Amino acid sequence: MDILSILIFLPLCGSLFILLLPKGAEAPIRFIGTFIAFVELLISIYLYIVFDKANPDFQFVKNISWIPSLNINYFIGVDGVSIPMVFLTTFLSFLALIVSWNITTRVKEYFILFLVLETGIMGVFLALDLFLFYIFWELVLIPMYFLIGIWGGANRRYAAIKFILYTAAGSLVMLIGILSMYFVSEPHTFNIVELSKQGFSKSFQCFVFLLLFFGFAVKVPIFPFHTWLPDAHVEAPTAGSVILAGLLLKMGTYGFLRVSFPLLPEAAVTFSYAFAILGVINIIYGACTAMAQQDLKKMIAYSSISHMGYVLLAMASLTKTGLNGAVLQMFSHGVITGSLFMLVGVIYDRAHVRDIDAFGGIARQVPRYASLMFFSCLASLGLPGLAGFISEFLCFAGAFPVFKILTIASVSGIVITAVYLLWMLERMFLGELNPKYADLPDVDKREFLALVPLVLVIFAVGVYPRIILDTLGPAISQLAVRLGGG
Asked: What is the pTM (predicted TM-score) of this model?
């Protein structure tokens, strides 16, 4: 059984099935779309269980000749780096569709686009042929553009166009880098495994590394390529924000780990210090800008820029500890920020406002909502025992032996993060309740069903991070040795 192809194409098949349903059948459309995402989640859990954690190589590989004249193959596989991202994709997609049941406008189109989006993201994390990788990378842009542009906020068209322009421009530059490796390799190939054996010259590696950097940097996003992100987050529907922060940002850092670092190791070493500097800028700039925000959703959007900076700093160390920390931070941030954006959606659906100072002490009025928000914020600021702490700790532990001054400077991001999150909690949930929200309803059963699994995963990874680290270990060790940091 080709389990990876099922993971990639089941959502696409589901979207085609929904396409055949009548437009007015909204209840069956919601159920079928969510059920398909649930089946995807079950398959990914099974894959995680049967995955050989001691094997650093790609597993469940499928390699079929696709375009023989250009040596392009349908080549997919999973290893310790990609399998946490596979689970994260199915997990967040399923929960995002649960919170999407309140969508009432063009329900059929919404669920079709969302399932196509899941296919694109899954393909990126499983593709081992750069041509196939690029197709899935571009496929992600189309449904996300429409999800923002149709179901977004007041400025949704501006945000959608800005998103597509930034990401498409970065992708075109990245394509030049991919084609450069293809034409220089002997024989010409897009095969990631074969390209890693080519031994490109250092000057060529640096040239291609910079080309790939623009495509991946826009997705992360790395300062100064970040300006599309706050607009896209603020205008996107709740589920769109969850997928943007939880998965699309991870595509950028995953691209570095899957393509740039293993295929261009000398260039990775050459640019490692500049990479670390950009990581520190992301951490401090994102945190300071988040602290200045009055809009709750925009604050969390800028916090994502800050937290992705920890991934960049850890990756730049090129050490086993740093690379482990980077992937664990990618996973932890995906779960934590998914929870935060869902909670923003919950309060916005009720109050139709995201102004932090508008609410006052609503903790007494919505105690379940307040508890979930406090928990997610404490995880985001790195409270010991939760996923955010151990992932950031490993990022610092890996980076400190290599970049002592930069790592010390980046620790200030934790302090600033604690300031803006605790200040937000005080203004929203403590003090005197705004009479306007005296009848504000608490979290309902559907929302609670979507949020509780996130809480459980955040706690589980924080208490027992080996759930992820044992899977990462062999593949990360192999990559670290290749980069000279083993």
From this structure: 0.93
